[in-house]
Inverse folding.
């Protein structure tokens, strides 16, 4: 990979100031990784260079037809100061699944992970200590200039990095969610399982409704019947019942979350009864009201594991149990974050150490 060092990197004092309370996605590191693709040359010109605005043609197809996909992952500073990624191969695979769905070229997994490793090495001083982490955002855009509707013949892959703290403003406090009854996120045959920008553009009006109703996130129901719980705008969802069983909606139209998959494995390791099965919004309300439903949590790379304390919907609100962080949520969060930071035996081989 060609390295172009930053001529004027952020000073140590300025970096310390920016990293004091980074929140999520507001502070960016000095460099970015880029790789180009053309139909003639394939992938070429991999480099690490100073982070700067792109120059793209106003007719670049991403600006018109949204051929764009992305990933979200984190680098952690863990036990013994080791810098690690968590299951990066899964992100590489999902990125390529998204690429195929959006008629974009796939990137060899080794190049995807290699670009991320190089960027983390160059910008290592931006990895927060303690609870924070370096959020990594690999993405790909179509750059060819034309207005016909067809797959582009030119693409740019890029990785940017952003020191991150808690995703939700309230930190670890349980969140409130708004269940949308007019908007849906994904339909069978659509792009729900792909991580493409268009899915998020389409979710914004529903998310804005959630915020207007005093909630942190929107919950989407299925498009066909408006009955089955699918997922949140940017997270998967889990339910914990009074018999100790755990349920999450099945794959299909939802994003196959890597956190979701890890939580499923950790819950099974504990011997919990785990189901990937449909759950209706009507049952959610009834089970919360009867006390059968003990805990609900959202999970994802950015949000980690966040308890859902209350649901709001047209015509009502419903608290979940006592509205607090429950014991199963807490235990699974501690196991997951422990593993991400090198605490506990890594029996699934999920940690990926970056040689510095
Ligand atoms: N669902 C949606 C719509 C998301 O945007 C995300 C976040 O990436 C997730 C679920 C969780 O996925 P992961 O655990 O891989 O971050
Ligand atoms: C993530 O958790 O990485 C996400 O992409 C969710 C959201 C920030 C889009």
């Amino acid at each position: 990979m060609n390295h172009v060092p930053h001529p004027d990197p952020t000073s140590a004092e300025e970096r310390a100031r920016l990293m004091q309370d980074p929140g999520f996605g507001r502070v960016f590191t000095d460099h970015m990784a880029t790789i180009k693709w053309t139909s003639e040359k394939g992938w070429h010109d991999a480099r690490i260079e100073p982070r700067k605005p792109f120059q793209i043609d106003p007719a670049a197809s991403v600006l018109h037809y949204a051929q764009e996909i992305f990933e979200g992952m984190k680098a952690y500073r863990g036990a013994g100061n080791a810098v690690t990624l968590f299951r990066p191969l899964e992100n590489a695979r999902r990125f390529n699944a998204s690429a195929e769905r959006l008629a974009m070229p796939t990137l060899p997994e080794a190049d995807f992970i290699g670009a991320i490793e190089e960027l983390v090495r160059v910008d290592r001083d931006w990895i927060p200590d303690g609870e924070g982490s370096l959020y990594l955002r690999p993405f790909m855009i179509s750059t060819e200039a034309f207005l016909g509707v067809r797959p582009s013949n030119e693409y740019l892959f890029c990785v940017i990095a952003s020191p991150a703290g808690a995703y939700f403003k309230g930190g670890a406090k349980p969140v409130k969610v708004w269940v949308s009854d007019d908007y849906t996120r994904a339909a069978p045959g659509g792009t729900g399982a792909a991580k493409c920008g268009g899915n998020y553009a389409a979710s914004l009006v529903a998310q804005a409704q959630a915020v207007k109703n005093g909630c942190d996130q929107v919950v989407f129901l299925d498009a066909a019947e408006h009955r089955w719980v699918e997922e949140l705008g940017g997270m998967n969802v889990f339910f914990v019942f009074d018999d100790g069983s755990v349920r999450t909606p099945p794959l299909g139209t939802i994003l196959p979350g890597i956190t979701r998959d890890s939580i499923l494995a950790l819950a099974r390791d504990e011997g919990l009864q785990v189901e990937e099965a449909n759950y209706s919004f009507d049952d959610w309300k009834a089970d919360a009201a009867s006390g059968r439903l003990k805990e609900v949590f959202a999970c994802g790379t950015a949000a980690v594991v966040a308890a859902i304390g209350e649901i709001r919907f047209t015509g009502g609100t419903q608290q979940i149990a006592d509205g607090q962080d429950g014991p199963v949520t807490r235990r699974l969060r501690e196991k997951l974050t422990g593993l991400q930071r090198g605490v506990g035996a890594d029996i699934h081989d999920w940690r990926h150490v970056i040689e510095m």
